[in-house]
Protein 1
Amino acid sequence: MAKIFVEAYGCSASFADSEMISGLILNGGHTLVDNSSESDLNIIVTCSVKDSTADKMMHRIKSLKSKPLIVAGCLPKAEKDTVEKFSEEASLLGPNSLGKTLQVISSTMNGKKQIALEDSDLSKVGLPKVRLNPAVGIVEIASGCMSECTFCQTKLSKGDLSSYRLGDIVRQVETEIKEGCKEVWLTSTDNGCYGFDIGTDLPTLVNAVVSIPENFMVRVGMMNPMYMPRIRESLIESFDNAKVFKFMHVPVQCGSDKVLHDMKRGHTAGTFREIVKKIRGRFGQFTISTDIIVGFPSETEEDFQKTVALLEDTRPDVVNLSKYSARPGTDAAERKQLDAAEIKRRSRIIFEQISKLSMESNKKWIGWKGRVLFDELTDEGIKGRNYAYKPVYVRDKVCIGESHVVEITDATVKRLIGKIAS
């Protein structure tokens, strides 16, 4: 039996994978340790979405390979040769191969490298897990997606959409709540197309989850705009429930329809505008989060200015900004790339714009009083979320998982600051 250190990076689905890997480790009779200095074997659950992230992964792989190592997650599936260049002896475990976790551990501990990158038929719903956060249950609802985005490497790792059965997901949520979670995240590569392959959809799932008769909150994860018109009206109805955070992550990526076409995004800037208009018209204070990529190979200055205009028109509360980087194996990597200095210039302009928009959005909450669920311990103290999933910090002594009425007294670009009101 081995002492094993598990480290995870990337999206919520990647962290969910690490929780399940940890659960399988304990079920297999092994021990989890908190750092690599105490371990017999290291496991790193990787992300490969951007160059900068992949570079960080490689650095960590090099620092962990002094002991038997398993590289799991998206990177070994998308860039097997690159991983092996940095750690020739490491075993590889794909994001849809978790059923082979114990087998790969055994082989690696016995000095034999094992490659397990083929998708298994094992559903991730119902697997044992060790939660990273006792207040938050991360529930994967599907693997893969229906898109063919020319810049994205995730498709190479996770493949086509495979939705998990609605009843299985509901039972998993019930388990999370029974085991003390106050907040549930529904996550996948793209929640927007959930169920299209099995005759259901996301609004039906959300309605089923919120019908569980317990006190908890639901965060619905990222959904691409291209599938929103098919489910928009029923999805908005499903969000009209007190258990659902009034938060939606809809990555538009660009304001130019020409560039969106080149990206094979399957939607237009108008699709995003309509989503924002409908949601704000229905709910008022509702947190809209989106993603922007600047410097895609075919992006002209005119295209870039359309992105600036789209952000000014729609005023999203949160914008995740990325400078385009060519990911190996993707179609866009074969195109002539833009000058790095120009990409940096455009990125700086958008960064200043979104900082201004976020500050204006957060200032509107000063004076608000309402209930906040405290769900995360950070280096800066305890953080909570209000009904619109706005991050709230207080200096009062609060325990994770507690809910308190808070009055917002100040705001920064990234957070609200408040005090316990009762």
Protein 2
Amino acid sequence: MIGYILRRLLYGLLILIGVNLFTFILFFAVNTPDDMARLSIGGQRVSADAIEKWKVERGYDKPLFVNMAQPGVKKYTDTIFYQRSLPLLTFDFGSSDAGRDIGREIKARMGPSLALAIPTFVLGLAASVAFSLMLVFFRTTRLDFWGVVLCVFMLSISGLFYIIAGQWLFAKLLRLVPYSGFAWGWDAVKFLALPVLVALVSRLGPEARFYRSLFLEEIGKDYVRTARSKGLSERVVLFRHVLRNAMLPILTGTVSALPLLFMGSLIAESFFGIPGLGSYTIDAISGQDFSVVRAMVFLGAALYIVGLILADISYTLADPRVRFE
């Protein structure tokens, strides 16, 4: 088991190096610093002096990989790759193009993102599993039929519709919650109630339909018929046997998504004015702050790799038959 984890960590490190190199090429070779300067300053008719000044202020005036104008080791250290890309491997995100410390911004914005993401994740998972188990318990009935119709209807609607409709109904019409904003303490409840509710409703349809298919597949297996032949009730069969044996595909999606909770929700945080990492990324994209975008891409890749490793480890807890050589 320890050897397996070490191998996965080594693979993850290689993937991170590849992601770092790929994003560097994408941001600095395909999209050159001159292009960044034009996008940041605004317009194609920007003077060469303005472009050069913008590059010097941000350290983008150096060569990409090799600086032939420098002697010795400085040929490789006095480059954009060494100064702006390699530090990401040690999670040193440096400064944004506006001069702000990216690491400090991430720490400050992680709290609001988690305050929104954790209730959404826990309540959403519980609601989807409970709703799908109810449909399976009443399968081949009208409740099951209309429940599936509701799931298909809900997954066919864009998440933006739920956000706009929720703000119109609960914030404008009923005046139960504010449109947007964020505060700590008990005041956070009134600001997070609507985003959490919208997230629950938007994910209930696709997740409940998927979990229902998993549970129906398990119900047709031999161990379920054996459990019923022993006189166990349908409720016990569902919760003790079907749910437990369907945990592997559920864990694949849930455990691997845990680290990504830190990244926040790009759309929800922007619409509801929550100062989290999601809105931070959107603002960086809108403001053409390439340093922040690269840092968030790298952080997201690192967290996703951690999530996959956690998912593999959790398999052994959910199913003792799974063992790693």
Protein 3
Amino acid sequence: MNVPIATPIPPLPAQPDGVPWPTEEWPEAQLGSKVNAERLDALMDHAFSDPAPDDMGETHAFLAVQSGQIVLERYWRTFTKADTYPSWSMAKSITQALVGILVREGKIDVHAPAAVPEWTENGGVRSHITLDQLLRMSSGLKFREDYVDGDASDVIEMLFGQGKHDVAAFAAAFPLEAAPDSHWSYSSGTSNLVARAAAIALGGKGDVFEAFMRKELFDPIGMRSPLPKFDDAGTFIGSSFCFCTARDFARFGLLYMRDGVWDGRRILPEGWVDYARTPTAVPPDEPLGYGAHWWLGLCGPGSFSANGYQGQYTILIPDLDLILVRHGDSLDEKGEKTKAWLAQVADCFRE
């Protein structure tokens, strides 16, 4: 798939010669001589202080991968590299990868109307909403994404209330609040519509879809720990639930850093990673940009990231060939202090 790119984006680096792919074990190396190690140590000591710092809350795991090798890894208290950590909305980027594999296989077209059975009849304008518009959070569907005020939260009702048995059907019932492609609004509901559309394209849900995830995405790149969650209808809860180790989230990041190719095998179709990191035409009303189920610019121009509630991050910084993975329990919903800390960590590799 060749995806037209609307704005210039930095090239993605190749795996350095002589560095093995971490399909089985991660290669490890020392921090580079250009890294500000003293400042980096201070930032790590702050994040991993015990008791946890007031500004960031708990940081349970952190690792940095540069040039395909782990150069820094740290865990808090009893947390270890063998533990699985919640993805929360980092699962959205995994969902985007699964759609990409179906694009590679010719089973789905992101620019065609999304497969939403509830909209086939009497869906009105909604029946014309494309998968691309869902991936870019610009569908125009009404949905309240609030993890603090339960009374005003559609996402809490979807994941833990009346919608939990069939998350996609719950999301499909929402009306339009704006014309498609005229308004950006972050919505976990649309991600679950995407996940179900992927299952429809595959022709299987539940165990069949999980087997597809493992065969086509997780196993080829050495991700052995993923624990994806499904609702009672058999839909992967692609908005929120895929537990992994920090090292496996880093493997997922490396797949995108290497343009969807792993050890000579193309996992994602050509152009899919660039599609993910191309800014949507309707930008968010906040500092970060948004591509197709990936956030943009958290650690400087050209960076893109999978971000999850309470401070889960897998950040790719192509110009440094650097991947940062952080798991924890941040205190504020949007994690602004944690984002600022991550940006400072990235700056240490620029100095």
Protein 4
Amino acid sequence: MKPKIVITREIFDDVIDYLKQHCDVDANQADVPCTPDALAAKLAGSDGLMCALTDKVDAALVARAPGLKVVANIAVGYNNIDVPACTARGIKVTNTPGVLDDSTADLAFALMLATARRITEVESYIRNGEWTGWKLKQWLGVDVHHATLGIIGMGRIGQAIARRAAGFDMNVIYHNRKRAAPEIEQRARARYASMDELLAQADFVVLQMPYSPDTHHLIGAAQLAKMKPSAILINSTRGGVVDDKALVHALKSGVIRAAGLDVYEGEPKLDPGFLELKNVVLAPHIGSSTEATRRAMAMCAAKNLVAALSGQAPPNCVNP
């Protein structure tokens, strides 16, 4: 008898076909988010769960799923899952690292360029029929090339961002909980700096670390005040790392020049103050959203799940 699994959101048909070779699949291809009670009912007789970062897998849900053996998250981050509660029950938790590094780094650079060159502002200007001709001092932005890029969080994605910066002849500095190995610094052409030094020197500050209690509001009013008035903040990592209310105030009052955001506190809701500002570029958490990358993430999660239910060690277990 095949193990039973539940998939919380719509995924690609080829991934479902792969899973059906190994499991009895309950797939939510209608993509209607489950309530906690509905998900608990589905999991009552299930062995595995494939979920998205929007699904909350907490201790209460785990307690209502007595047969659950594995939770496969279609994401690198897993702060949506109560890992200690799963571990206490012997439930493996997996994620999808590596496959989305380059796409997420691309998006961080897209936000940087769009914010520096005011792309969303000038597109609205044209679409609204306001463009009447060329002017020398029209829509002046700031240069990305030769600027100083400060990366907070020098993991795989942070390193990928640093490598892209080389093409723009940027001066790269970084801050991390632990200094990176010399060979990583050399490949990234990056110099280690303290947090205060990075905030004071960087023209662009890019955040790229996991969300946790330790990184909650890592960037707040005090940190924003240490940045240059001409600096631009890019958050393409996780909501909650930035104090969004403090950022809205900083953008309104000119503490920093601009921001490019892909993530927010309490998303999909966001601070309405952002919508009143022109000096912020907003994206709806699309860091990994290319077809190739999202397919790879879903298949990675599927292989993690199948391995766990086959009695093997999943390739990407976060609580081994």
